Each structure stands twice: as C-alpha cells, then as structure tokens.
Amino acid sequence: MPRRVLLSWSSGKDAAYALHRLRADPELEVAGLLTTLNSAFDRVAMHGVRARLLEAQAEAAGLPLWKVPLPWPCSNEAYEAAMAEACARAAAEGITAVAFGDLFLEDVRAYREARLAGTGLAPLFPLWGEDTARLAREMIASGLKATLVCVDPRVLDARFAGRAFDAALLADLPAGVDPCGERGEFHTFAWDGPMFRQPVTVAPGETVPRDGFVFADLVPA
C-alpha cells in the first residue's frame, strides 16, 4: 500500500513540481495540500495569493486543501502551534510524511526536520539538491506555467513582478539571482502544468509595494 503524504503547498512552482514528482512515485499517494493563510487578508502567507485561487489550484490538482489559518501579525509560537495541530490531524488520518518543495537551503530543511521530529510524520524533499538552473528549465519544458507574484526589490527589479516564469525570464535574471528564486528573490503562482487537470484561469490585478516587497496581484479570470 502506498505511503500517504501531505504536501506543503505555497501555491508556487516548486510546490507544484514537487507534486508532479511525488505522483510519479508509485510508493507514494499525495493525500492533500497543506497551506498557511493570512487570516486578516485571506491570502497565502508570503506569496499574497488570494484564497480563491488557492482553492482553484487544489480543484485542478484533484486534491483536498488543508488550510491552516494564521493570525496577523503572527508570532513564531502561533505558527508552530497551528502547524503542530495540522500535523497531529495528519498523523491521526494515517498520513505518514509531509513533503516540501525546498531546493538547497540547509537551515530551512533542518527547521522542518526538527519540527516534524516525534510527530510520526517523516519529511520528504523530492527536489532537494538539484541544480536549480537545470531544474528551472525542466519545469518550463514540462509545461508548467507560473507567474511571478512577489519580488524582493532589494535583489530583483520590481518590474519583474507579474512576469511569466519562462525561458525569457531566466535569460533576463541578473547574475546572483537563483533561477528558482530559492533565496526569496521571487515567488510564483503556478496556474498550469502536468500536475493539474485543467488550467487555473487568472487575470492580472494591480501591482503594489507592501512590507518591503512588490506584489503582483492575480484575480480569477
């Protein structure tokens, strides 16, 4: 019987491609998508994506959505308490692992492993350690389509917000910016690809600076 896995879901390309990889493993069954939401704005934490689009992604993926509401502002203690509750629910429902789309940040991986220790849930990292330039090209070649919804203007020009994650984008990224944005240079919303049964139709909204980042809003089309 396949191991049941919960996937940490940011709404971005890395999580989406992690889903694609997990589904290619016959020993694993993805049981749901786990997402934290900013309760004050009803948006995905950090990416700023509307909850309605998140729900459309889950529908397109054919998977249940596990929403973890977070207060705003949210302390680390509140975050960890909410995630601990979600992990307890997962273990009680027969899920044995949580998968993450992390690529190479050792401190992030160590934190996730530490938080899952003793929960009965094993951490999985299906994309870990891959060359991110090659991985970015593989994502695009697979048919994955995504839009940059958040940009850190300290390392990447604000005009990149709202652009498609495609070959042209990779060619335009400045030296030192990771092709997958793994250091937080940018975040994406995945709206089509082999992990979805149908595209999530979106239209561009307004682009606004907030909390030191530039967000390109997407609205349901």
Record the SSE blueprint:
Elements: E1 3-8, H1 13-23, E2 28-38, E3 43-44, H2 51-61, E4 65-70, H3 76-92, E5 97-99, H4 106-116, E6 122-124, H5 132-142, E7 145-151, H6 167-172, E8 186-192, E9 202-210, E10 213-220
Plain-language structure description:
It is built from 6 helices and 10 strands; from the N terminus they run βαββαβαβαβαβαβββ. The protein is globular and about 45 Å long. It has helices at residues 13-23, 51-61, 76-92, 106-116, 132-142, 167-172; strands at 3-8, 28-38, 43-44, 65-70, 97-99, 122-124, 145-151, 186-192, 202-210, 213-220. The protein has 221 residues and is of the alpha/beta class. Strands 1, 2, 3, 4, 5 and 6 form a 6-stranded mixed beta sheet that branches. Strands 8-7-10-9 form a 4-stranded antiparallel beta sheet, with helices on one face. The chain folds into 2 domains: 3-124, 3-Layer(aba) Sandwich (Rossmann fold), CATH 3.40.50; 143-220, no CATH class.
